[in-house]
Specification:
This protein is mainly alpha-helical. The chain has 16 helices and no strands. It starts with 17 loop residues before the first helix and ends in an 8-residue tail after the last helix.
């Protein structure tokens, strides 16, 4: 690849070239698209249920289908990007995303919407690691790459935050615009991307493809992700356990194949990096805590406090402060203290934010919620970008797609696990008592999961103190 950003030998940071800025703009637009797509759908779910007459199970499947496609194919998507070209995979996945997002807007039956969301998630599984690895290979390791990744991470968060608000307004017109709006943005990105993004052609010897390994790995991830989505349904616990058992068997078979193939899909030696294992584990726990908390807050505001979707969207908007802090404050902190300490600080703030919300009550005003929302917005700014940096630093260029897909898989799988865990605990604790006081008590109990997950993530990151930031 022709370098799109340069850094002098003495380590001083230089300005990005015009091409580098253009490429970063396109790649940030794509991750913004992915964030806004997820957030808008969450706000539109009640309207979708009302028009299509979906049961609770079918409505949950609309969300789960995306997660299954996303997390199930993420590792494969990253490796395909390494083997066959990141730019090529990015553009192809973006095209599929456009088509099936549009088809979702035309759905007249639940199965149509579920199918469209599954394929959209699958496209995102190829688009996201390809996009992130294009950044890590376009910018040299160090301050310049850190800045690019933090801008990228802040854009993703901004997409999610704006999506919460935009989803409320678009749903007021028609829930179908929640699917049509991303089509317009995707079309604009596709017009710019071929001109601004460059990539090296992959070495011919790397074009060999471990087809059996790909089938086993993808099947294992699909089975595991499907099992996670079933945890929120107490009557489907047997299905969840069987899915986990099948996933374990498939993973064992995959490891055997990878040990005995000349060109493995997933080089197992990559897990010898303590930084990679540490940051991916912390990412999984952090994502689970964050998305689990958002789910609980949405239930509290809409089903206990009787706030409208638009009011709920604005209440959560403060957590989008990371879109401002991530590209401004976080790079300075990383430069001064290193990734590990900044991540640890973010995780501690997350624990504080979740713990403060344990005092929720029927008489709470937004002023009482404000400290938690602010703390969590700052936590995301400090943790998310540096976790992405730490998970890809020190990885060879030919495996950047794989490293990117690993951290994104950890994030998506953690989000699915956190959502399912808190949902299952709310249902279990609510039982047959369905009144405001019982709901709040059930929500408080479930909120202990985000508190515990963020605490464990912080403890894991502490093991990196004193080591070279990676």
């Amino acid at each position: 690849m022709t370098a799109t950003a340069t850094e002098p030998a003495d380590g001083r940071t230089v300005r990005m070239s015009a091409r580098a800025k253009g490429a970063l703009l396109v790649l940030c637009s794509a991750i913004f698209l992915e964030g806004i797509d997820i957030a808008m759908l969450n706000v539109a779910l009640p309207s979708i249920r009302a028009e299509l007459g979906l049961s609770t199970t079918m409505l949950s499947a609309v969300v789960s289908a995306y997660v299954i496609g996303y997390a199930g194919f993420m590792l494969l998507g990253g490796r395909i990007a390494d083997l066959f070209g990141r730019r090529r995979v990015f553009l192809a996945a973006l095209s599929v995303f456009l088509v099936f997002s549009g088809l979702g807007g035309f759905a007249t039956e639940g199965w149509m919407l579920i199918t469209a969301r599954f394929v959209t998630g699958l496209a995102a599984a190829f688009m996201t690691p390809a996009g992130l690895s294009l950044i890590t290979t376009n910018f040299p390791e160090g301050p310049l790459r850190n800045k690019a990744i933090l801008i990228y991470a802040g854009t993703a968060a901004a997409g999610f935050s704006l999506g919460l608000v935009a989803g409320g307004f678009l749903t007021a017109i028609s829930w179908r615009w929640v699917f049509f709006a991303p089509v317009i943005l995707t079309a604009l990105i596709l017009c710019l991307a071929p001109r601004l993004i460059v990539d090296q052609a992959p070495p011919p010897e790397r074009r060999k493809f471990d087809f059996l390994g790909a089938i086993l790995m993808t099947s294992a991830m699909l089975s595991a992700t499907f099992g996670v989505t079933q945890l929120e349904r107490p009557d489907e616990i047997t299905v969840a356990l069987l899915s986990f058992a099948l996933s374990l068997v498939l993973w064992i078979a995959f490891l055997i194949v990878e040990r005995n193939t000349a060109v493995p899909l997933l080089r197992l030696g990559i897990f010898r990096s303590p930084a990679l294992v540490r940051t991916n584990t912390a990412t999984l726990l952090f994502a689970g805590s964050f998305f689990g908390f958002q789910f609980l807050v949405t239930l509290y505001l809409q089903e206990v406090m009787n706030w409208t979707p638009v009011e709920t969207s604005f209440a959560l908007l403060l957590m989008g402060v990371d879109a401002i802090l991530a590209p401004t404050l976080t790079p300075w902190l990383v430069s001064k203290w290193g990734n590990v300490k900044v991540i640890f600080g973010g995780l501690v703030l997350a624990v504080v934010g979740y713990a403060l919300f344990l005092g929720m009550g029927l008489d709470w005003t937004y002023a009482a919620m404000f400290p938690s929302m602010l703390a969590l917005g700052m936590a995301f700014a400090l943790a998310y970008g540096p976790l992405t940096i730490a998970a890809t630093d020190g990885i060879e260029a030919e495996e950047q797609g794989l490293a990117s897909s690993l951290v994104n898989t950890a994030f998506q799988f953690g989000a699915a696990l956190g959502l399912s865990a808190v949902s299952a605990l709310v249902v279990y604790n609510l039982g047959i008592e369905d009144h405001p006081e019982a709901r709040i008590e059930a929500l408080r109990t479930a909120l202990l999961i985000p508190v515990a997950a963020a605490t464990l993530a912080a403890l894991i990151m502490m093991t990196g103190f004193g080591r070279r930031a990676a």
